[in-house]
Amino acid sequence: MAEQGPQDDRNGRPPERRFRAAVARKAERHRRAQRERDRGVWYSVGLFGLIGWSVAVPAIAGIALGLWIDAHWPSRVSWTLTLLFLGIVMGCINAWHWIKQESREQ
Fold first, then answer.
1. Where do the H-state alpha helices sit in 5-106?
2. Where are the domains of the chain?
3. pTM for the whole structure
4. Residue 29 and residue 20: Cα distance in Å, rounded?
5. pLDDT, position 35
6. Predicted local confidence at residue 44, as pLDDT
7. How distant, in Å, are the alpha carbons of 13, 14, 23, 24 from that of 20?
8. What's the whole-number average pLDDT of the chain?
9. CA atoms of 7 and 29, how far apart (whole Å)
10. 57-72 burial code (b ≥16 CB/10 A, e <16)
């Protein structure tokens, strides 16, 4: 086992490596803060709109398809309501995907 000098830390790293690691951590924190500052309010508004549309479009598409099916093939089942529910579920899954992806980037 190598002998540790009085300046080495518990892991045996010399002071210059500790300094480099500390500078790298601070630089990364600074870059992350800069990205957050650059995004601003309009980025948040755009993301909110994107998530809203990702839920609204499948729901509207489900309503449209359900109305068409109900008009052409009447049945006891309301396809409009069924496909509306399915569209909302798909939209929420899509919105969850967008939020998860954005949180990973931060």
1. 15-72, 79-105
2. 40-105
3. 0.59
4. 14
5. 72
6. 74
7. 11, 10, 5, 6
8. 83
9. 27
10. ebbebbbebbeebbee
